Amino acid sequence: MADGSGHVPALAVGQRLVGMISNPRSHRHGRSVPSSTLVLRHPELLLFEPRDKPALDEALRTCALLGIRLLLVRGGDGTLRDVLSALPWAYGTHPPEIALIPSGNTNLAARALGLRPRGRDAVDDVLRAVQAGDGAFRRVECPVMEVRWNGDNPRRPIRGFLLGAAAFTAGKKLADDAVHRRGIHNGLAVALAVAIAIGTSLFRRSGIAAGNEMDIRADGHPALSGRHYLLLVTSLPRMMLGLWPFWGDGDAPLQSLAISAPPRRVWRLIPRVLMRRGSAQLTRQGLHSVRSHGIELRLDAPFVLDGELYEPGPDGVSVSCCGRIGFVTPA
């Protein structure tokens, strides 16, 4: 097992060195094949279990220096977010392909992209496909969303697939406080948390329904300012449980939905939204969905990116797509 020291396993002729970032804190990690067993089974596997972001940076730099072009990521959406955010500092503009081994709370990206190796043998299946050759893989490309802090904020940009604010942030907190503790995970956890947030606010004019102050400027579209009940932005082609609350013309990679606060008759409009029947009626009811290449956001409360809360800072954040990442899964 690699610990960041750069130790490279001895390879047989023709074997391809493969890197793996594994999150030992992922909730299903204990049900996976132990790391020590994986290393014994697969001498071509360079395995890292970083416990903080500096260790993750070091692990990825080691992979880049060794020319590793396939990276297994065992964890949830948060693990994938951290890996994607750190890749530019290790690989520059030529990232490796990624094979997802979902073992986190939500695993939304893996589900949305159809990359769901199952069971204890998921890592073995991917590595067998490596030995069989490129034809043993199915490949999917997806645009990656990048969030940059504006002004003099020194934070490093973060990358991911789903940004949410206001009721979505409330749903995230509910998921942390209640849903996950009851053993509910994956896409169902996200859906239930958001449903609880919506259900507790539809008939009230305060609390979650009061929303948060936002200034939303998507390129080529009128600015939206004032209190908003919900904001969602994604670069994914679909979401959990088949839900898709977006519409809009064009083929720009970012898709967003903003709902003004307090929500008006949302319970009547939800079926139209989820069936992708966007119309002028939805806009009149305070629902706005557009496609864009970039969005400027100013928020008065934290936002969520792939399961983690972030403070927006006084100057807000810029959201854009920073290119596409290639994902592979055994065919």
From TrEMBL:
Presence of the UniProt keyword DNA repair in the record: no
Source organism superkingdom: Bacteria
Q: Which GO terms describe its molecular function?
A: kinase activity
SUPFAM superfamilies per the record?
A: NAD kinase/diacylglycerol kinase-like
Keyword Ribonucleoprotein (UniProt): no
Which keywords does this Swiss-Prot/TrEMBL entry list?
Kinase, Transferase
The record, for Pfam families, names:
DAGK_cat (PF00781)
Q: Where is the DAGKc domain?
A: 47-128
What protein am I looking at? Acylglycerol kinase family protein
Where does this protein come from, organism-wise? Rhizosaccharibacter radicis
